[in-house]
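Cross-check.
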Amino acid sequence: MRLALRLVLIASLFVAVLLLLLRNQIQDKWDQYGVASYIQHKVKTTFKDGTLDYLPPLPGITGDKVIVMAKLEKDDTSWVTEELSDWQAALYTVNPSPNSRPKLSTPVNKGREAMAYLTYIIDNYASLPSILTFLHSHRSGFFNAWHTDTPLHSNVDALHTLKLDVVKENGYVNLRCNHNPGCLEAHTHNAHVTPAVYEELFRGTSTELNSTGEGQKAPERVGAACCAQFAVSREQVLKRPLEDYVKFRDWILETEESDAKSGRVMEFLWHVIFGRDAV
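Predicted model, tokenized:
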């Protein structure tokens, strides 16, 4: 009995010390995943038939706004048309099988969601809706959609509560308000968007680059709240010529960087493309 108690005490002490040593890492993940808010609202909705008080009703008609999305062929994105029927939907299959005929597909499966985002802008540049929202294909989920900045990590909730007048006023709105990860000082020393990559991507576009000080220099630091889900106004998109978006897509197509790496580069640059400072 004494031996068992002694082992329990030693194990408890070991766990306590481990938690203490990992306190900062645990707190960081707790913040990234919005754990406290998720638990609070999950419990609340369990006893209220899954409804949330803060969600406004759908207007019932499809508006002058579009959801642009990259999806794998296996992804179920029926939730977009079923639960966000007031939005137009441009859903791009990035990996269509030889015998499938999706309504929309990307030229190649590279650059993650960026290939679909840029393809929509290029193909529809002359007839863009007032609001463009760029989303991932997951509806919700604690692990799959942790970066969706609503209490239950739901893209449906995010778009129900999106203030379109704010998007029009600001031009660009990141759908994630939590600055972790992406905006913390340590994150802005970006290993993906180096000055060399920045110059490679923007050289020859309407973003003037000149190492002599005339025009914009490639920034030493780049930071943005993850994870490439955002809304922009038509006016903001049109501040760049069509050729810029073609150049950005060509960079993805031609770069030796991998699918994941080229997509990550674009993830950290959408805010710059749409008129924001690098940090």
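DSSP finds twelve helices and five strands in the chain. Residues 2-21 form the longest helix (20 residues). Passed to J.P. for a second look.
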